[in-house]
Amino acid sequence: MTTSTRGTAKVPAVLVLEDGRSFRGRAYGAVGETFGEAVFSTGMTGYQETLTDPSYHRQVVVMTAPHVGNTGVNDEDPESARIWVSGYVVRDPARIPSNWRSRRSLDEELERQGVVGISGIDTRALTRHLRERGAMRVGIFSGEAIADEAAMLAKVQASPQMKGADLSAEVATKETYVVPAIGEKRFTVAAVDLGIKGMTPQRMAERGIEVHVLPATATVEDVYAVNPDGVFFSNGPGDPSTADHPVSVMRSVLERKTPLFGICFGNQILGRALGFGTYKLKYGHRGINQPVQDRTTGKVEVTAHNHGFAVDAPLDAATDTPYGRVEVSHVCLNDNVVEGLQLLDQPAFSVQYHPEAAAGPHDAAYLFDRFVSLMEGQRA
């Protein structure tokens, strides 16, 4: 629960981790209290896209870059209709935003949307703590919400964990909508929204694809009612081990051999559909500077990430599945985490990162072209 108060720069705030460590700073955004999973993002830019990414639902994001808010907030860059992070942590917020597109400051936008944040703390020390101990539950308390540390810690430890959380239906569209193709329409894609970012259907529309964005609860009959040339499963929040319905729908798509593409949560859904397990990473990958190798070409890409879970699949050989052979197509060069899957006997693949690249980089944009090629091949 949050409350909003103007002029928060001098309001005290406290961040309390579930292991008892705490940091004291100043309120940033709304004043009150909030809870979530503490994660850190290593991007030096793109904070507006991060805040509005539905995959960050129920997470408190710690920005490792010290200066945040320099370019303010505009009305063009949001990835969805609202801010999804449950809390925001920065070291040194911009006093005066400066950008020709800026309409308001970041702290004003956080306050307007009721997002409780904290500033003025040592985010480097907090990040190192999360790297050593792992992502954990956290609470931010400011103003009258501040109590003695034992009481605040008890609230944090009583808050829900991310492991086992089924969240995609909470952030997905409730009604189907269509993003029209830009220029000549070439293909129709059914996109299952598990927490989709706005730039993803835009990237497909740029390639002549009419995208029908369906709710997370869509059935296989709903998917094929739009007569798709391809099916897409989006990014999204939560634990993939809870996503039994999307897994069932994806298996039906694989049985029909319709060209299939998954991003992030969609990669984990494909992994589960093929029979692999998933697991929670110690602190996850978040930011726009993560090195990934495309093992099909040997090329190394700098990529945008936001995931705390990963697929448990063998890196050294192809695996037989009920839908044909599959291999790990992409791998993170920092820790050898699976970053992509590719079926060898039918047109289906996925990646764990974000090739729609808002706010960059654009190294992986070719993956949308690869999806187009699969649909072209199927049509031929």
What does this structure look like?
- The protein is of the alpha/beta class and 380 residues long.
- It has helices spanning 47-51, 106-112, 123-133, 149-158, 168-171, 199-205, 220-225, 244-256, 265-273, 366-379; strands at 2-3, 12-17, 22-29, 31-41, 59-63, 67-68, 87-89, 92-93, 116-119, 136-142, 177-179, 187-192, 209-214, 230-233, 260-263, 277-294, 300-312, 319-321, 324-332, 338-343, 348-351.
- The strands form three sheets. Strands 11, 12, 13, 14, 15, 16, 17, 18, 19, 20 and 21 form an eleven-stranded mixed β-sheet that branches. A seven-stranded mixed β-barrel has the order 2-3-9-7-5-4-10.
- Strand 2 and strand 3 form a beta hairpin.
How are the elements arranged and paired?
Layout: E1 2-3, E2 12-17, E3 22-29, E4 31-41, H1 47-51, E5 59-63, E6 67-68, E7 87-89, E8 92-93, H2 106-112, E9 116-119, H3 123-133, E10 136-142, H4 149-158, H5 168-171, E11 177-179, E12 187-192, H6 199-205, E13 209-214, H7 220-225, E14 230-233, H8 244-256, E15 260-263, H9 265-273, E16 277-294, E17 300-312, E18 319-321, E19 324-332, E20 338-343, E21 348-351, H10 366-379
Parallel strand pairs: 4-5, 5-7, 6-8, 7-9, 12-13, 12-14, 14-15, 15-21
Antiparallel strand pairs: 1-4, 2-3, 2-10, 3-9, 4-10, 11-13, 16-17, 16-19, 18-19, 19-20, 20-21
